[in-house]
Every structure is written in C-alpha cells, then in structure tokens.
Amino acid sequence: MANNALTNFQCPNCNGPLTFDPGSQKLKCGNCGSAFAPAEIEEHYDKQVALSIEEGQKEYSAEDTLQWSEEDAQNLRAYNCPSCGAQLIADKNTAATSCPYCGNPTIVPAQFSGALKPDYVIPFKMNKDEAIKKLSDFYSGKPLLPNAFKERNHIEEIKGVYVPFWLYDGTADVDMAFRGTISHSHREGDYTVTVTENYSILRQGTVQFNRVPADGSSKMPDEFMDAIEPYNYNEMIPFEMGYMTGYLADRYDVTAEQDRNRVNTRMRTSSADKIRETIKGYHTLFPRRSNIYIREDKVHYAFLPVWMLTTKWQGKTYIFAMNGQTGKMIGDDLPIDTGKSVLYFFGILLISMILIGILLFVVF
C-alpha cells in the first residue's frame, strides 16, 4: 500500500505542472506559460506540504511492505503520485523525482524537513540544451576521438540532479620547515666550481577556509564532483523546495562526519601548497617539518546543481558530469582512434624534424 507523502506544485491559474526554469529562475507552467517565484509557490502550498511531511514521517506498516523482501523494505518506499494516483517505487533517500506515468515533477517534502532541510541551494543556471552543447564542445576538444563516436553517438540519458553537499568552514594552523639551496658556479682554470649555499626556512601562520565542499551522496563519483568545482557561492541562496521541481534530488546518505577526513585532507594539502608559494628564490627546496592542525568550524548543508549525462559506445557506458551553474564538464576517458593516433604521432615527429633541420641550417 503506497502512502501520500509526495506533493507537486501546480499552476494556480490552470493546475498545470510547474517546473523550475534556469533562464528566468522561476517556476514555469508547461500549459499556460505563467511564471512564479519559488517562495511564492511554496507559500501557496504550505498546507499541502505540511500534510505531505506528516505522512512521510509515519512508520511503514507490515501491510505496506508485505510483498517486499526484507532488503527492499529497508531501502525502498512506495508513494502515490499526487497528479495521476499511480504507485511510485523510489529509493528511501529520494527527495525529488518525476512520475514515470504522467511525467509530472514530484517532491518528497519530508526529505527537506527538520534536520534534513538544507541551509542553501544554488539553482540551475544551465538548461538541458546547454548541457548537450557542452558535451558536444567537450568532444570537439578531443582530436583523437573516433569520428563515428562523434557522429553516431547518442546520449542515452541526461538528468539534472541537485546533489547534497556539505560545506565546511575551518582554519589551518601551519608550522613548516624546509632546507633551501642556492647554487653558484664559476670557472677556476680548467675546472668548474659549484658552491651550494644551504638555508633553513621556517614558516608559521594560519590559512582560513570557507565552504570547502564534499558531496554527501554515495551514488555520485567523488572524483567527478571534485573535478567540476568551483561553484560561485555568491549566488547561493536560502533553500526553497520550489527549486527542486523538475529535477532529481536525493537527501544525503553520507554524513558530515563521514566526509570530514576527506575535507581535512584537502585543507592540509591546500595549506601546505599556500605556504610553499611564499618561498621563492631557491634552486631546490626540501621539506624538514610539516605540522598542520585543522580547527573545525561550521558545516553547512546545501544542494548544488549537476547535469549527469550517460552515453554508450560499442557496449561501454561513458559518464559525464557538468556543473549546472558554471558549465564546467568532466567525463570518463574517451575511446581513441588508433589510425588518428598514429598519424598524430608521425605528424608531430615530422614537424619536429623539420624544425630541428631549420635550426641546424641556421646555426651551421
């Protein structure tokens, strides 16, 4: 038996489905074209949202999960679509999705209530067409990509996802020591004498960090989420559920504490790099001591926009991720055309030989 923990936002003018539009930064009606601010629509549906939250917080009964295995009962939820009444089966962490039967966007308000409510959201600025174009541009920058991959390859799936992120504030107290050398060479008769001067270099200081991100979703590949940074946090705004409509979203299933070690490592690495940047003028630099202590501060919970694109080629799946705010793209290693790579190698070799020949001709 499904429950009624889902809700959707419908146009107050014609009851058509509302979807967030990145271009206008408003919720648009697919039927009459009306546009509304997310806060305005959420306020309009306050009572409906409250009832959905109350329903979503109820415990599942034995009747609800009788037909499921024990594992399914722990990880899946059954809902009634508020538009067409069809039964939807979703992951227990699903926060926003769409009905596979009527296509209307649906939201699970209970996933955004209480301690689960995000502090902030960065709305999508790039729409689906822009994501597809970015992928095409990504292909064009790969000269060794097979032509058939570019011409016949079709996107299997593209989805806009609000990914849960933890944003960490903190301070790194740094105490580092190095041995630096400067070498001088001069001639003494038939010999070249090199004098090496050794210096002891000490550095102490603090490095302040604000909003260092780490995704809180086990479904998202961490290396992709790291690679599409940075986000412009100046455009981050207080969370409103209306921004979710028309997109997918999961609440976090990796806690802030579980992500903490990964973030502290990033802070330590960045602090060490910053300190090294202050040391200039030495020919060689050898680390002697590195003590970096992280003082933890606030942690913010935010939803950040990501376009996920999937394509297949010769039986292999390729996954790409794009920052839904800035358009920065990253993806799996692409196939290489063997013939192109051979021509490319010999082309570079030929050009190098010509340049060397010209240089030798000029010198001699």
UniProtKB/TrEMBL annotation:
Keywords: Membrane, Transmembrane, Transmembrane helix. Gene3D superfamilies: RNA polymerase ii, chain L. Pfam families: Trm112p. It comes from the Bacteria. The chain crosses the membrane at residues 342-363. This is Zinc finger domain protein, LSD1 subclass.
